[in-house]
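The instructor's notes for this session suggest beginning with a concrete chain rather than abstract definitions. Hand out the sequence below and ask the class to guess, before any prediction is shown, which regions might be ordered.
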Amino acid sequence: MSHYFSEVQDVKSVKKIINYEIKNEKFEFLTDNGVFSKTKVDFGTDVMLRTFLNENKKLGNIQILDIGCGYGVVSVVVKRFFEKAKILSTDVNERALELTKKNIQKNNRTDDFEVRKSFVFDNISENFDVILSNPPIRAGKQVIFEIYEKSFFQRAACAVDVALDRRAVGGLSGPRGAQRYGDLRGRPLGGREGRPGGGLAALSAL
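After discussion, reveal the predicted structure:
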Protein backbone atom coordinates (compact mmCIF):
# COMPACT_ATOMS: atom_id res chain seq x y z
CA MET A 1 0.00 0.00 0.00
CA SER A 2 1.40 3.38 -1.00
CA HIS A 3 1.42 6.48 1.20
CA TYR A 4 1.48 10.13 0.20
CA PHE A 5 5.25 10.09 0.82
CA SER A 6 5.74 7.11 -1.57
CA GLU A 7 7.31 7.67 -4.98
CA VAL A 8 4.62 5.94 -7.03
CA GLN A 9 0.95 5.82 -6.09
CA ASP A 10 -1.02 2.60 -6.61
CA VAL A 11 -4.40 4.12 -5.72
CA LYS A 12 -6.82 5.01 -8.50
CA SER A 13 -6.54 8.59 -9.72
CA VAL A 14 -9.65 10.67 -8.96
CA LYS A 15 -8.87 14.31 -9.51
CA LYS A 16 -10.86 17.15 -7.98
CA ILE A 17 -10.65 20.93 -7.56
CA ILE A 18 -10.49 22.55 -4.13
CA ASN A 19 -10.63 26.25 -3.31
CA TYR A 20 -8.47 28.17 -0.88
CA GLU A 21 -8.40 31.83 0.17
CA ILE A 22 -5.75 33.64 2.16
CA LYS A 23 -5.37 37.38 2.71
CA ASN A 24 -8.09 38.12 0.13
CA GLU A 25 -6.27 36.11 -2.55
CA LYS A 26 -8.18 33.19 -4.05
CA PHE A 27 -6.66 29.97 -5.35
CA GLU A 28 -7.86 26.81 -7.06
CA PHE A 29 -5.89 23.61 -6.59
CA LEU A 30 -6.12 20.35 -8.49
CA THR A 31 -5.77 17.40 -6.08
CA ASP A 32 -5.98 13.65 -6.39
CA ASN A 33 -5.94 10.41 -4.45
CA GLY A 34 -2.53 9.52 -3.10
CA VAL A 35 -1.51 13.02 -2.03
CA PHE A 36 -1.57 14.67 1.37
CA SER A 37 -4.74 16.53 2.40
CA LYS A 38 -6.53 16.03 -0.91
CA THR A 39 -9.88 17.49 0.21
CA LYS A 40 -8.71 20.82 1.63
CA VAL A 41 -5.60 22.78 2.56
CA ASP A 42 -4.65 21.31 5.92
CA PHE A 43 -4.55 23.26 9.18
CA GLY A 44 -0.77 23.10 9.60
CA THR A 45 -0.02 24.45 6.12
CA ASP A 46 -2.61 27.20 6.54
CA VAL A 47 -1.10 28.32 9.87
CA MET A 48 2.41 28.21 8.44
CA LEU A 49 1.45 30.31 5.42
CA ARG A 50 -0.47 32.90 7.42
CA THR A 51 2.37 33.26 9.91
CA PHE A 52 5.00 33.50 7.18
CA LEU A 53 3.03 36.12 5.25
CA ASN A 54 2.30 38.15 8.39
CA GLU A 55 5.95 38.20 9.41
CA ASN A 56 7.37 38.92 5.96
CA LYS A 57 5.75 41.84 4.21
CA LYS A 58 8.33 42.46 1.50
CA LEU A 59 10.79 39.93 0.14
CA GLY A 60 12.96 40.50 -2.89
CA ASN A 61 14.93 38.15 -5.08
CA ILE A 62 15.46 35.41 -2.50
CA GLN A 63 15.83 31.63 -2.84
CA ILE A 64 13.05 29.56 -1.25
CA LEU A 65 12.82 25.79 -0.91
CA ASP A 66 9.42 24.14 -0.47
CA ILE A 67 10.45 20.65 0.62
CA GLY A 68 7.69 18.04 0.57
CA CYS A 69 5.61 20.34 -1.59
CA GLY A 70 2.65 17.99 -2.07
CA TYR A 71 0.37 19.43 -4.74
CA GLY A 72 2.06 22.83 -4.48
CA VAL A 73 0.03 24.93 -2.06
CA VAL A 74 2.97 26.61 -0.31
CA SER A 75 4.90 27.31 -3.52
CA VAL A 76 1.89 28.71 -5.33
CA VAL A 77 0.75 30.95 -2.47
CA VAL A 78 4.21 32.30 -1.63
CA LYS A 79 4.90 33.09 -5.29
CA ARG A 80 1.62 35.01 -5.58
CA PHE A 81 2.67 37.31 -2.72
CA PHE A 82 6.40 37.47 -3.51
CA GLU A 83 6.74 37.46 -7.28
CA LYS A 84 10.51 37.98 -7.33
CA ALA A 85 11.25 34.99 -5.11
CA LYS A 86 12.94 31.99 -6.73
CA ILE A 87 11.15 28.85 -5.56
CA LEU A 88 12.22 25.22 -5.79
CA SER A 89 9.40 22.74 -5.09
CA THR A 90 10.44 19.20 -4.21
CA ASP A 91 8.71 15.97 -3.27
CA VAL A 92 9.28 12.23 -3.66
CA ASN A 93 5.65 11.61 -4.72
CA GLU A 94 5.52 11.66 -8.53
CA ARG A 95 1.77 12.26 -8.64
CA ALA A 96 2.13 15.22 -6.29
CA LEU A 97 4.87 16.72 -8.47
CA GLU A 98 2.66 16.55 -11.56
CA LEU A 99 -0.14 18.26 -9.64
CA THR A 100 2.28 20.94 -8.45
CA LYS A 101 3.22 21.75 -12.04
CA LYS A 102 -0.43 22.02 -13.04
CA ASN A 103 -1.33 24.15 -10.02
CA ILE A 104 1.54 26.52 -10.74
CA GLN A 105 0.26 26.97 -14.29
CA LYS A 106 -3.30 27.40 -13.04
CA ASN A 107 -2.60 30.01 -10.35
CA ASN A 108 0.58 31.89 -11.27
CA ARG A 109 1.30 33.88 -14.39
CA THR A 110 4.96 32.91 -14.50
CA ASP A 111 7.25 30.05 -15.46
CA ASP A 112 9.82 31.09 -12.86
CA PHE A 113 9.46 27.85 -10.90
CA GLU A 114 11.41 24.63 -10.65
CA VAL A 115 9.74 21.36 -9.64
CA ARG A 116 12.12 18.52 -8.78
CA LYS A 117 11.85 14.96 -7.48
CA SER A 118 13.82 14.46 -4.28
CA PHE A 119 13.57 12.40 -1.12
CA VAL A 120 14.41 14.92 1.61
CA PHE A 121 17.73 16.46 0.42
CA ASP A 122 18.93 13.56 -1.76
CA ASN A 123 18.61 15.59 -4.98
CA ILE A 124 19.12 19.07 -3.55
CA SER A 125 22.57 20.67 -3.45
CA GLU A 126 21.70 24.37 -3.35
CA ASN A 127 21.54 26.68 -0.34
CA PHE A 128 18.46 28.78 0.37
CA ASP A 129 17.40 31.93 2.18
CA VAL A 130 14.17 30.33 3.40
CA ILE A 131 13.06 26.71 3.71
CA LEU A 132 9.35 26.01 4.16
CA SER A 133 8.07 22.56 5.05
CA ASN A 134 5.09 20.74 6.46
CA PRO A 135 6.89 17.44 7.13
CA PRO A 136 5.12 14.12 6.47
CA ILE A 137 4.51 12.98 10.03
CA ARG A 138 3.63 9.45 8.91
CA ALA A 139 7.08 9.07 7.35
CA GLY A 140 8.45 8.76 10.87
CA LYS A 141 10.77 10.51 13.28
CA GLN A 142 13.97 9.75 11.36
CA VAL A 143 12.75 11.43 8.17
CA ILE A 144 11.40 14.49 9.97
CA PHE A 145 14.57 14.91 12.02
CA GLU A 146 16.58 14.72 8.80
CA ILE A 147 14.52 17.53 7.30
CA TYR A 148 15.00 19.63 10.44
CA GLU A 149 18.69 18.81 10.75
CA LYS A 150 19.70 19.56 7.19
CA SER A 151 17.50 22.62 6.98
CA PHE A 152 18.92 24.10 10.18
CA PHE A 153 22.56 23.24 9.67
CA GLN A 154 23.23 22.66 6.00
CA ARG A 155 20.92 24.52 3.66
CA ALA A 156 19.31 27.67 4.97
CA ALA A 157 21.32 30.88 5.06
CA CYS A 158 19.20 31.97 8.02
CA ALA A 159 19.49 28.61 9.65
CA VAL A 160 19.23 29.45 13.34
CA ASP A 161 15.66 30.67 13.33
CA VAL A 162 12.26 29.24 12.54
CA ALA A 163 9.85 31.37 10.55
CA LEU A 164 6.99 30.65 12.91
CA ASP A 165 6.33 31.86 16.41
CA ARG A 166 6.25 29.36 19.26
CA ARG A 167 2.48 28.95 19.09
CA ALA A 168 2.55 28.02 15.41
CA VAL A 169 5.46 25.61 15.26
CA GLY A 170 4.46 21.99 14.73
CA GLY A 171 6.43 18.80 14.83
CA LEU A 172 6.65 15.10 15.39
CA SER A 173 3.51 14.44 17.38
CA GLY A 174 1.92 17.83 17.79
CA PRO A 175 2.53 21.56 17.80
CA ARG A 176 5.73 21.48 19.89
CA GLY A 177 7.86 19.08 17.88
CA ALA A 178 9.97 21.54 15.93
CA GLN A 179 10.38 23.74 18.97
CA ARG A 180 11.42 20.75 21.03
CA TYR A 181 13.93 19.79 18.35
CA GLY A 182 15.34 23.32 18.26
CA ASP A 183 15.62 23.38 22.03
CA LEU A 184 17.47 20.06 22.04
CA ARG A 185 19.92 21.38 19.48
CA GLY A 186 20.44 24.64 21.34
CA ARG A 187 18.98 26.69 18.53
CA PRO A 188 16.59 29.58 19.20
CA LEU A 189 13.16 29.63 17.61
CA GLY A 190 11.23 32.64 16.42
CA GLY A 191 12.13 35.01 13.62
CA ARG A 192 14.68 37.76 13.92
CA GLU A 193 13.83 41.20 12.69
CA GLY A 194 15.13 41.84 9.20
CA ARG A 195 15.83 38.19 8.42
CA PRO A 196 13.40 36.85 5.83
CA GLY A 197 11.53 33.83 7.05
CA GLY A 198 14.17 32.90 9.59
CA GLY A 199 15.39 30.00 7.49
CA LEU A 200 12.97 27.19 8.30
CA ALA A 201 9.24 27.05 8.79
CA ALA A 202 8.41 23.56 9.94
CA LEU A 203 4.97 22.21 10.82
CA SER A 204 3.23 18.92 10.68
CA ALA A 205 -0.51 18.38 10.41
CA LEU A 206 -2.21 18.16 13.79
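Then share the key points. The radius of gyration is 15 Å. Strands lie at 16-22, 25-31, 63-67, 86-91, 113-117, 130-133, 161-162, 199-202.
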